[in-house]
Design brief:
Elements lengths: L4 E7 L3 E8 L4 E7 L2 H13 L5 E7 L2 H8 L5 E5 L8 H10 L2
Parallel strand pairs: 1-4, 4-5
Antiparallel strand pairs: 1-2, 2-3
């Protein structure tokens, strides 16, 4: 099933690099703090996106925690991938739409 919304998260020391793509549109990239505030912002995006299926792909520091925290949304799924899969969040979004 192709997701309606894909989010890629490259988790680094103090920063979450986040990329999002709706359908086959352009990829938007933004930075959030690597704290509970950044995670809360992503949860708000996921909760407000009530149309269709969402997919979150995380890599890097705290990727497992991110996937467990963000994957628990109705109609969503979360994956943890090796950092070699994509060092940039946009690479993770492209991977999610192409491979998963």
């Amino acid at each position: 099933m192709n997701p309606s919304l894909c989010i890629g998260i490259a988790s680094r020391d103090e920063v979450l690099e986040v990329a999002a793509r709706e359908g086959s549109g352009n990829i938007a990239v933004f930075l959030l703090p690597g704290s509970s505030m950044g995670i809360a912002a992503i949860r708000i995006i996921l909760a407000d996106y009530a149309v269709g299926h969402t997919r979150v792909v995380a890599s890097g520091k705290n990727a497992i925690d991110l996937a467990l925290t963000l994957g628990n949304v109705p109609g969503g799924e979360a994956f943890v991938v090796a950092a070699e899969t994509g060092k940039e969040a946009a690479d993770l979004v492209r991977y999610a739409t192409r491979v998963l």
